[in-house]
Specification:
heteropentamer, A alpha/beta (274), B mainly alpha (346), C alpha+beta (501), D mainly alpha (290), E alpha/beta (346), D: 290 residues, mainly alpha, MetI-like fold, 12 helices, 73% helix, E: 346 residues, alpha/beta, Rossmann fold, 8-stranded mixed sheet, 4-stranded antiparallel sheet, binds adenosine-5'-triphosphate, binds magnesium ion, cell membrane (chain E), ATP hydrolysis activity (chain E), membrane (chain E), ATP-binding (chain E)
Chain lengths: 274, 346, 501, 290, 346
């Protein structure tokens, strides 16, 4: 069953005095319930624009975005509240996506408060403490500010914050690309574990195909605002049909000196030809 | 791509600014008009004179149009404004435009000199401060700046005048020009007029008259600029492109001039633009002490006399100057920053 | 280039006194040269030397009338017209001869414009030109005060002025131009920071010892003027405070004259409404002030403590009644005030007034009376005069009666007909009204004098105001200058009489 | 890493502290400010009424002596005690003014930030108009309209001060609004009020705190300036600006009467100026050291 | 700490292009200095391509910057010989001549690395202009370098400003600035981290090509082992201010000696194989001011034993070649441990 569905979504930006930018052209994308779907593409391909449209922060120029029967761009009142409660986000930069003035307790508990899921302060604190333990932090961290955590830990807080209200759909916009390899692995593992444990649906955005391959069951490749290839990640990554996917795939660094050197040779040769 | 060219974008930007400036000025006039009307007092009586009979007062009221309702007076003002007429002062009985023409050059001369002092003193100080951040030099400069800005302007004016003018005598005590010089008025700015008259001695003398008031006026504003500039410099100094420049082997001096300063002066330029209006007003605090009569004195007097059109005219002229100086600032920023030219930050 | 500014008094022998140019420092804005506004001191300071009136009064000689542009005058017995014989061989600064039509033009213009000096011409009907050297000024009602008001009414050249009439009856042009007959020609570059006047060599009463040039320079701060005078950059300082002037005394090469003016510093009460409508309260307030203390410290012991409602500069005065403090009596009289606190209005631009008001406030505080000092701006002050209900309970001001004959001044201040305009204290006394009405139609000076004295005694006994001090205007100047004395034609001094030593 | 030079900073600071002990400023300044605040609270209580307010005209303009440490003024009042007594009105009015216009500024900036494009445009035009009006002249006008007194000077300055605050704050708030954590809060379903109170304002007010301290000093100065042009506290008030103005005419003959309150103003402005500076270092991310 | 670490390379030190010996870097004041880097040694020979890897904060950039002496406030000890000259002993002025001329540097953030106000051409030419090369000559050479780096229409693009360039293009410009004076060593501090996968690939290829063509030595700094595999010959691994592992690329990837290196390798998700779970290094690196006693890695090390908590391991030859600083490799046990490490990795 599809939880989130984008149909023919287009988005054109009209900036004053500039050429209009067609950021999205006829995007069709389905996210099946209970899966992790990957969306890959290079910088500027329109990934964030899709996310903003799902958030309801950008209005698509045309097309529909349906979440569980609700058309998000049109949603108001109760519907919108439901979307806000059931769809949560984790962003690329864990530093700027957490309010530096709030303690971890407040940050993680904010959703519980806003959606009146837990209005009692001490019980909320206990819930937050549980969540922190779940993402590998401890209740000693409740009163600390995000600044005093490392990047990986901050991203854990961001995930805890998103998971606090028990979302059905979690959307992650390049949640690991700002992190060190070792931390990236921690966060990826965490996401994977949580998803398995809680069974929510994930839309995972990245530009690194290796990351996508690691955790996604399905993948969609986006280039210049268009989905150029879509399918189960095994298939797509094993036999990419679109040249763009192929190029992306080749660009992924391979920590195997022999393979890597060989690929470097190929590239150099291509470069010379070009 | 014509509609995308930097030139066009710049033009569009400037036109937009112009339109909003005009709206701003209209708003400003209405605002001032209302304010002056709220000042208690009877303009007609002021115009007619202290000993005027009630009949004389009424006659004057009628002839000045002061018997009309508020909005009619305002509309009449704008009507006259379209013809470049700012009205007549009730105390000097002179056209406001002419009155302002007489006092404006004086103020502009003072303010411009103060701005020149600010820029030429603050820039090196702030640069030195930022480069030697938290070192003894920085602390000394910072203390000096804060201390000099902590003195009440008029008090410092009195003090400096007494010390430098009267006691030591290295500068004139007051006025604009020593009595032995006789310079025909052309622009109204003594230094400029002296130069136009081909009398550099007189220009030098005029400059000496202006220097202390200009310094006193400059101090508090200079301190603001110093703060902003220092903070900005420190921020710019930490940018990666400076490390890159140093790694390229750029020597310190060139680093500062080519890479640090141009990237740091943006907010400073904007600040000076904003300060322009405030400085013309603040000039009143030094004008009195140094026997100068500028637009600040003119306006102070006009406010005290409830001289509606004189206040309006004065503020409007300052408003135009502020708008113009903001324009100049915008153009300078455009020249400075290619990203602005491309409308990327606009 | 610095010598001009830094040279002290010592070196002035060569630099300044040798030059016959005199620089005058003055205070407050110089608005216009138009003699229409000669009621304004800064305007009159210049107009007084570039223009001339028909007649003047000599302060040094019992306020006797002297002819300027008129050589003789005759007031008709019914006090309804005055005939003037005009001086011959007088020329305006552009060379045009002065004739009767200029007199008519000038007077008509003032009355037509109805502002400023026009208030001196109240009751003017018309001027009849008899011939080139004779005119008759007709009044709409008998007015014996009229002629003494003419000392500040200047005559301008009809032809030149009407040539620049414009839409404002030449006001714009006259703002910075002049068309007079006086000993000096005004420059056309007058501006708010001053103006320059040059000796007019075809003046009918030419005197080579007048300075060749008079430069008027605006300097608002007393301290600045004080320093500039000492440094030799100005030769006459008109904007000094009493204490600064006092400190100049004894400086070599400088002289200080506290010019005794016809003005008095007075504290007007609202005689009609509020607590001060009660004469006992007024008397109490009057007795509360420490006249002697203020005199010695705020006025630096210059001028005099008031002797009555008129300045000692006037000639027909009743027996002096010096103002004195009497705390005990004041306390007793003021008991009627209860705990009411009063507003004392004053013009804070005048530092002396601020000081006096502060002292008064403290004096009254000692007696248990609270006074709030509330500065008032000129336009507001004028507005408050429009009705007895808005007139301040207490208003501190310097009041000048500009004419040597006090009749017109007394009439303006104390005639109940003038409540709402010039009767500053809303003072009302039928006996005074009657006396003033009588005086207006009395052509005989001596007779009028008796009436004035009666008025003065009555007003004083009603405690219409507290009369504090004669205004003694401190003037510092180069000691080789002569003729810096009190004058009726300009406050405090007229530069007509200025001569180089 | 982008900000290598900021990393270097702590090092410098320590060196300087070790060599010159200059960072003593950071200890002294808060003490100075605290003393001033205490003075403002107890000043009027400890100063003898007569020395402060009662004219003792025959003792006027006495030079400093054992009886009158800072001499007497033109009314024969004790300058020292007047300065002590005047601390309250001088400081209190500045605090009031600065707080007043900060609140106004915050309100306006909030409207501009939350009210959408049009509200922003209108508000900023108004702010521009207000900025084009020379503050001193504006204050003069407002004070003239209300009648000269300390309270009207206070109101006048509140009305003059807000545009700068509003402009500054709007910029900062706009920047804060573009931070990802704001979006993050919005998609969590946070209400506008909560967004403003818990997310935008707390992250924007740093700037204001810094400005606040610096402004106190400035305000005392400008208040003095207003006194100088005839607007402000009236006799017998011992407000410092009014004291200087009242004594400016005797600056040559009795300099103490104007110098002493002038120094009091300068010292206060200095203390708050330095405080502002210290706070700026604490709060400005660009100057903050790790 | 007195013992000289053993060499990974057998070539004689005298031929080395760059020879860093026991470089120790301190920040902070004397009483409580922060030791950022301790006893770092590295040799590079002409044409060598060496990678310096390690997690964020391990001291890679500090080391690179200190080779160039870019931070005047660091206290450096040890020696940095470049072409036989000890850079640490040069005067500031002499150092300026080394920077950009003999050693070029490329930085992480291509946007931040360029001065936004100056044209690309000017910036590329700057090192030459400083060296006194005429403008036309400098322009010509700048165009050549940009051409070489694949900037199409270089002559025209030189007049453009940085904001008009895309990220990949900017990195080419940064590279051009580093290359223009024909240095013999390039230090590239995370030149691709901020870039997209595809651009990353392009830039690396480019560096690869240029350095091969010019026989340039390259010190590549990164935290991603994956990116170095195809590019470098030798890898040095840093952890918390120390070099803990150094080996040839093949050796390092095949037999990672240090547990930290092993951890890093396992944490990289691989496109050619899937694991149910990525293996991670638990915990976070220590702050330089608060390192644990003994081996800095011990709290995170799965194999730590008592000695690790007490004594700092020294660099010793590793079984598979290279050197490693780990108590698990006392000469005898080395082989066995290496085996164990491999098993773990599988
Ligand atoms: N507000 C906007 N106004 C104009 N153009 C925009 C705006 N937002 C995005 N764009 C343009 O839309 C395109 C898609 O941008 P988007 O941010 O969605 O890319 P992305 O795939 O998320 O890239 P990245 O990997 O860099 O985050 C880009 O060309 C961008 O410049
Ligand atoms: N001036 C300084 N004063 C004190 N500590 C510093 C200074 N500069 C850097 N450091 C610290 O030194 C350590 C090493 O920093 P460095 O920038 O070399 O790390 P890095 O390995 O390059 O990391 P990244 O991958 O994040 O670039 C860090 O902990 C950093 O905080
Ligand atoms: Mg994005
Ligand atoms: Mg680094």
């Amino acid at each position: 069953m599809s939880l989130l569905e984008l149909r023919d979504v287009c988005k054109t930006f009209h900036a004053f005095g500039r050429e209009p930018v067609k950021a999205l052209r006829d995007i069709n994308l389905t996210v099946e319930e209970g899966t992790i779907t990957g969306l890959v593409g290079e910088s500027g391909s329109g990934k964030t624009t899709i996310i903003k449209s799902i958030m309801g922060l950008e209005k698509p120029t045309s097309g529909t975005i349906t979440y569980d029967g609700i058309n998000i761009p049109e949603a108001k009142g109760d519907e919108l509240r439901r979307v806000r409660r059931e769809v949560q986000f984790v962003f690329q930069d864990p530093t700027s996506s957490l309010n530096p003035r709030m303690t971890v307790e407040k940050l993680v508990g904010e959703g519980l408060l806003v959606h009146k899921l837990e209005t009692d302060r001490s019980r909320r604190r206990a819930r937050v403490a549980d969540l922190l333990t779940m993402v590998g932090l401890s209740d000693r961290d409740l009163d600390r500010h995000p600044r005093s955590f490392s990047g990986g830990q901050r991203q854990r807080i961001a995930i805890a914050r998103a998971l606090a209200i028990g979302p059905k759909l979690l959307i992650c916009d390049e949640p690991v690309s700002a992190l060190d390899v070792s931390v990236q692995a921690q966060v990826l593992n965490l996401l994977q574990d949580m998803q398995e444990e809680l069974g929510f649906t994930v839309l995972f955005i990245a530009h690194d195909l290796a990351v996508v391959r690691q955790i996604c069951s399905r993948v969609a490749v986006i280039q210049s605002g268009q989905i150029v290839e879509e399918g189960p990640s095994e298939t797509v990554l094993a036999n990419p049909t679109h040249p763009y996917t192929q190029a992306l795939l080749r660009a992924v660094p391979n920590p195997n000196p022999t393979v890597a050197r060989q690929r470097a040779q190929e590239r150099l040769a291509e470069e010379k030809v070009a | 791509m014509a509609n995308n060219s930097p030139a066009r974008q710049t033009a569009v930007f400037l036109v937009r600014k112009a339109v909003s400036s005009v709206i701003t000025l209209i708003g400003l006039s209405m605002f001032v008009f209302l304010m002056v009307k709220l000042i208690p007092g009877d303009e007609a009586r002021v115009a007619a004179g202290e000993n005027a009979t009630p009949a004389q007062v009424e006659a004057v009221r009628k002839s000045l149009g002061l018997d009309q309702p508020f909005f009619v007076q305002l509309l009449q003002f704008f009507g006259r404004l379209l013809h470049g007429d700012l009205g007549t002062s009730i105390t000097t009985h002179q056209s406001v435009l002419q009155g302002i023409e007489q006092v404006m050059p004086q103020t502009i001369e003072l303010v411009v000199l103060a701005i020149i002092i600010i820029i030429s003193v603050v820039t090196p100080l702030a640069t030195l401060s930022a480069l030697r951040r938290d070192g003894a030099t920085d602390v000394a400069i910072k203390l000096f700046v804060i201390l000099s800005a902590a003195m009440p302007t008029f008090w410092l004016a009195l003090l400096l005048q007494y010390l430098l003018g009267t006691q030591i005598g290295i500068v004139p005590i007051s006025g604009r020009l020593s009595r032995q010089f006789n310079i025909p008025t052309q622009t109204g700015a003594v230094v400029v007029d002296s130069l136009l008259a081909g009398n550099p001695l007189a220009a030098w003398d005029g400059l000496q008259h202006l220097i202390v008031p200009a310094i006193v006026l400059a101090l508090p504003f200079g301190a603001q600029l110093y703060r902003i500039l220092r903070a900005e410099l420190i921020q710019v100094l930490s940018r990666e492109h400076l490390t890159v420049a140093r790694a390229k082997g750029v020597p310190q001096r060139q680093l500062v001039w080519r890479h640090v300063l141009p990237n740091s002066i943006g907010p400073g330029i904007t600040l000076v633009g904003i300060q322009f209006g405030a400085m013309t007003g603040a000039a009143v605090l030094v004008e009195g002490v140094f026997g100068l009569v500028g637009v600040g004195s003119y306006l102070t007097n006009a406010v005290a006399q409830k001289d509606t059109f004189a206040v309006l005219g004065g503020v409007l002229v300052i408003g135009v100057l502020v708008v113009v100086s903001n324009y100049v600032v915008d153009v300078l920023q455009l020249i400075r920053d290619p990203r602005l030219r491309a409308g990327q930050l606009g | 280039s610095l010598s001009g500014c830094t040279a002290g008094r010592a070196s002035d022998g060569s630099a300044t006194s040798g030059s016959s140019s005199v620089v005058v420092g003055f205070k407050h804005e110089f608005n216009t040269m138009d003699p229409l506004h000669a009621d304004y001191a800064q305007t009159n300071m210049v107009d007084n030397i570039v223009y001339e009136p028909l007649v003047q009064f000599d302060a040094a000689n019992d306020n006797k009338m002297v002819g300027m542009l008129a050589t003789a005058n005759r007031v008709s017995p019914d006090a309804k017209s005055i005939e003037f014989t005009l001086r011959e061989n007088v020329v305006f600064h552009d060379g045009t001869p002065f004739t009767a039509k200029d007199v008519k033009f000038s007077l008509d213009r003032y009355v037509r414009l109805g502002q400023g000096i026009a208030s001196q011409l109240a009751g003017y009907k018309s001027t009849t030109i008899v011939d080139d050297s004779h005119v008759v000024v007709n009044l709409s009602a008998p007015n014996a005060f009229f002629i003494s008001g003419l000392a500040d009414v200047y005559i301008m050249e009809a032809a030149a002025v009407s040539a620049h009439a414009g839409t404002d009856d030449s006001q714009g042009w006259l703002q910075s131009h002049e068309a007079g007959t006086g000993p000096y020609e005004g420059s056309s570059t007058s501006s708010p920071d001053g103006t320059t006047a040059t000796r007019f060599d075809k003046y009918w009463n030419f005197d080579a010892t007048r300075p060749k040039q008079l430069v008027f320079r605006r300097i608002d701060e007393s301290a600045t003027e004080h320093d500039e005078l000492k440094a030799g950059n100005i030769d006459v300082a008109l904007g000094l405070t009493a204490s600064d002037a006092e400190s100049l005394k004894g400086t070599s090469g400088l002289a200080v004259n506290f010019v005794k003016t016809p003005g008095q510093t007075e504290l007007f009460f609202n005689n009609s409404t509020g607590p001060t409508a009660d004469p006992k309260i007024r008397e109490g307030l009057k007795l509360a002030f420490d006249y002697a203390g203020g005199y010695s410290r705020i006025l630096a012991g210059e001028g005099t403590i008031s002797n009555g409602i008129l300045s000692p500069a006037f000639t027909c005065l009743p027996a002096p009644t010096p103002s004195v403090q009497d705390k005990a009596k004041a306390k007793q009289l003021l008991a009627g005030l209860g705990s009411t606190s009063l507003d004392l209005r004053y013009q804070s631009v005048d530092d002396t007034q601020t000081q006096l008001a502060t002292l008064f406030q403290s004096n009254l505080k000692d007696l248990g009376v609270n006074i709030n000092l509330v500065p008032i701006a000129f336009p507001d002050y004028l507005k408050t005069l429009s009705s007895p209900s808005t007139i301040p309970s207490l208003m501190l001001l310097n009041d000048y009666i500009m004419t040597s004959d006090p009749g017109a001044g007394l009439d303006k201040l104390y005639n109940s007909a003038n409540i709402g305009s010039t009767n500053k204290g809303a003072y009302k006394n039928a006996k005074v009204d009657a006396l003033l009405d009588q005086a207006r139609v009395t052509t005989d000076l001596a007779q009028r004098c008796t009436q004035y004295k009666q008025v003065e005694t009555q007003v004083e006994s009603d405690s219409a105001a507290a009369y504090m001090y004669q205004v003694a205007f401190p003037v510092g100047y180069r000691s080789d200058l002569k003729g810096i004395t009190a004058s009726w034609s300009a406050t405090p001094i007229s530069f007509q009489t200025l001569r180089l030593g | 890493m982008s900000n290598t030079l900021t990393k270097i900073a702590p090092l410098r600071r320590r060196t300087v502290r070790a060599i010159t002990g200059v960072s003593g400023v950071q200890v002294i300044v808060p003490i100075m400010v605290a003393l001033l605040v205490i003075l403002a609270i107890v000043g009027p209580l400890i100063a003898p009424f007569d020395a402060v307010y009662r004219s003792n005209i025959l003792d006027s303009l006495q030079a400093p002596s054992a009886a009158h440490w800072l001499g007497t003024d033109g009314q024969g009042r004790d300058v020292f005690w007047r300065i002590i007594a005047g601390a309250q009105s001088s400081l209190l009015s500045s605090v009031l003014i600065v707080t007043g216009f900060s609140v106004l500024g915050i309100l306006v900036a909030t409207i501009a930030t939350l009210g959408g494009k049009r509200a922003d445009e209108i508000v900023m035009r108004i702010v521009d108009a207000a900025l084009a009006f020379p503050p001193i002249i504006f204050a003069l006008g407002v004070a003239a309209a209300l009648g000269p007194s300390l309270s009207s000077a206070v109101i006048a300055m509140i009305l003059t001060g807000w545009p700068v605050t509003a402009r500054l704050l709007r910029g900062v708030m706009k920047e804060t609004m573009s931070q990802p954590f704001i979006e993050n809060a919005r998609v969590l379903g946070v209400s506008r009020t909560r967004l403003m109170l818990h997310h935008v304002l707390p992250n924007s007010l740093d700037v204001l705190v810094v400005k606040w301290a610096g402004d106190i000093g400035n305000t005392i100065l400008i208040l003095g300036g207003l006194s100088f042009v005839g607007v402000g506290a009236q006799p017998p008030s011992a407000e410092w600006g009014a004291m200087v103005t009242g004594a400016k005419n005797v600056i040559a003959t009795a300099p103490w009467a104007a110098l002493a309150p002038g120094f009091a103003i300068a010292l206060t402005a200095l203390a708050f100026g330095l405080l502002g500076d210290i706070l700026q270092v604490r709060f400005n991310p660009a100057l903050r050291r790790r | 700490m007195t013992a000289l670490p053993e060499q990974t390379d057998t070539r004689p030190e005298v031929d080395a292009l760059l020879s860093v010996r026991n470089l120790t870097i301190d920040a902070g004041t004397k009483p409580d200095p922060i030791r950022l880097v301790q006893d770092f040694s590295l040799d590079m020979f002409p044409g060598d391509r060496v990678a310096l890897v390690g997690e964020s904060g391990s001291g890679k950039s500090v080391t690179a910057r200190s080779i160039m002496r870019l931070d005047p406030d660091f206290r450096l000890s040890g020696s940095v010989r470049f072409q036989g000259q000890d850079l640490l002993k040069l005067s500031d002025r002499q150092m300026v001549r080394v920077r950009g001329h003999k050693i070029g540097m490329v930085f992480q953030d291509p946007m931040g690395a360029l001065n936004p106000l100056i044209t690309i051409g000017e910036q590329v030419m700057e090192p030459l202009r400083i060296a006194g090369v005429s403008r036309s000559e400098a322009e010509r050479r700048a165009k050549d370098v940009l051409d070489e780096l694949g900037v199409v229409n270089a002559a025209a693009r030189m007049k453009a400003y940085p904001h008009e360039f895309s990220g990949g293009m900017r990195q080419r410009v940064v590279l051009a600035m580093a290359l223009i004076s024909n240095p013999s060593l390039i230090i590239a501090d995370e030149p691709t981290t901020a870039l997209d996968v595809r651009v990353q690939e392009q830039v690396l290829t480019l560096m690869d090509k240029v350095s091969k063509e010019r026989g340039l030595a390259v010190l590549l700094i990164t935290h991603d082992l994956g990116t170095v595999a195809g590019f470098t010959d030798r890898v040095a691994v840093m952890y918390s201010g120390r070099k803990v592992d150094e080996a040839t690329v093949d050796n390092l990837f095949e037999h990672p000696a240090h547990p930290y290196t092993q951890g890093l390798l396992q944490a990289v998700p691989r496109i050619d194989q899937t694991v149910p779970r990525l293996l991670t290094i638990a915990g976070a690196p220590p702050h330089p001011a608060a390192r644990p006693a003994g081996c800095a890695f011990n709290p995170r090390c799965p194999k730590a034993f008592d000695l690790c908590r007490q004594e700092v391991p020294e660099l010793r030859p590793a079984p598979g070649g290279g050197v490693v600083a780990c108590h698990h490799y006392p000469e005898a046990e080395a082989e066995a441990e290496a085996e164990a490490g491999e098993e773990q990795g599988a």
